[in-house]
Amino acid sequence: MGRVIYWMNTSIDGYIEDPEGGLDFPEPTEDFRQAANDHVRRTAAFLFGRRLYEAMEKPWTQDLGKEGAPPLEREFAQLYKETPRYVFSDTLQTVPEGVTLVRREDAASTVTRLKQESDGTFQLGGPELATSLVDLIDEFWVYAFPVILGGGKPYLPVGKQLRLHLAEHRGFASGITFRRYVRS
After folding, report:
1. Class of 3-183 per CATH?
2. 179 and 166 Cβ atoms separated by less than 8 Å
3. Would you list the domain boundaries of the chain?
């Protein structure tokens, strides 16, 4: 059976964006970029909410695939394009080839089916989507950047307590820390 991993980059105070909707996180170092590439290499599919999908799609399918980008970013762009992507949205009407559009009301049944049909890992992104699918999430991954935002959009606005166990923790040269939690 497949596993769903909810992965988002956050500030150390737990926000994925500031109160104005911006991201002003420090530039990650090569060791962080390599870790991201290694994870994406093992990802069966991306499961995105609309806003995260829109933030990811153009930079990784058009902008960074160009020759001038650093090698690890070009590698990520290639891995991203090769990985199936599902976007859960009721507002998008069309998506490009390689992307599957799913209505939000069908999110739980689609993710349940994907987990049953695969032994792979599915990378879930987007706090609202994660909240709606919280009972299907197997692991919670937090890459905390060394910045305090003081407010904004939280990592997971779930509204209920989840008991987790820290399964892995490591730091990167840039001061970014990684924490991998599994359900207790």
Report:
1. alpha beta
2. yes
3. 3-183
